[in-house]
Every structure is written in C-alpha cells, then in structure tokens.
Design brief:
Largest sheet: 2 strands, antiparallel
Helix content: 55-70%
Low-confidence stretches: none
Order of helices and strands: EEHHHH
Strand content: under 5%
Distance between the termini: 114 Å
Number of strands: 2
Radius of gyration: 39 Å
Number of helices: 4
Structural class: mainly alpha
Number of domains: 2
Length: 148
C-alpha cells in the first residue's frame, strides 16, 4: 500500500498526517482550535438544517436565545453595578474642638517656619518638634536652657 500524502488543514493551513481510518475525507488537523472550528461548522450546518425543517426546533431555539440574552444582560448589569466608581471624598469638616483648631494652627505655623507646604515635610518637622518638646519637659536637653 502506498504511503498516504500529508494533507493541509482547512482551518490553520498546516500540513498534517491524516488518520488512517478517515483519510479520504479528513479536512482538519487534530489541534484543539482546528477541532473546535470543525465542530462549530458542523453545529451551524446542523442548526440551519433543523431550523428549516422543524418548527418545534425553531421555537425551542427562539426561547433558548431569549433566555441566553436575558442572562447576558443581567451579567452586564451586575458588572456595571460592581464597577461603579466610589464617591469622591467629602471635604474635611471644620474642627469643632479648640484642641483640633490649635493643632491645625500649629501645623500652619510649622509650615511657615520651615518654608514648605509639603505635608510630609511638615509632618516630619512636627514630629521632630514634638520629640524636642518631650525631652525639654523631661529635662533631657543638654545644658537645660539657652542664653541668647
């Protein structure tokens, strides 16, 4: 028996060795995407034939498609509801307590002293001044007092 020639796949165009049992009518190779394309084509032909021949099949397909589209719309609606952007942050409220007002005033004064409006720099400077104040009240600064 002569060797069978390689065939060319109708989907991907690659050369393949046909199966020995159906080489006379094999048009697709065995790759998964080519097999899926072959099955897709078969299902389309089968569906078209049934739609033309059987009115009950037509009605079943119409119902199936309506239900599928209803499910797709529900998924899209749920996805857009989940993906809603968060509300913008509300502006900071004015402090009601005098302590909070004095803290904000202290931040403003320190910002003016160091000549910066960068919040990180002001925060570092504030922490440094707070540490210095703790050491001063504990009597831990060198020399006690400074004379000018």
């Amino acid at each position: 028996m002569p060797p069978r020639p390689n065939l060319v796949c109708c989907h991907c165009g690659r050369s393949f060795k046909p199966d020995r049992f159906n080489h006379h009518h094999q048009k697709y190779c065995g790759l998964p995407e080519c097999t899926a394309a072959r099955n897709r084509g078969y299902r389309q032909q089968n569906t078209q034939r049934h739609l033309a021949d059987a009115p009950s099949f037509r009605e079943q397909e119409r119902i199936r498609c309506c239900e599928a589209m209803r499910a797709v719309r529900a998924r899209r609606k749920a996805a857009t509801a989940r993906a809603a952007p968060p509300a913008p942050p509300s502006p900071p409220e004015e402090p009601a307590e005098p302590l909070a007002m004095s803290t904000l005033t202290m931040f403003g004064v320190i910002s003016q002293l160091i000549g910066s409006t960068d919040s990180d720099e002001v925060r570092r400077a504030t922490m440094g001044y707070a540490d210095r104040g703790r050491r001063l009240t504990a009597g831990g600064l060198d020399g006690g007092t400074r004379s000018g």
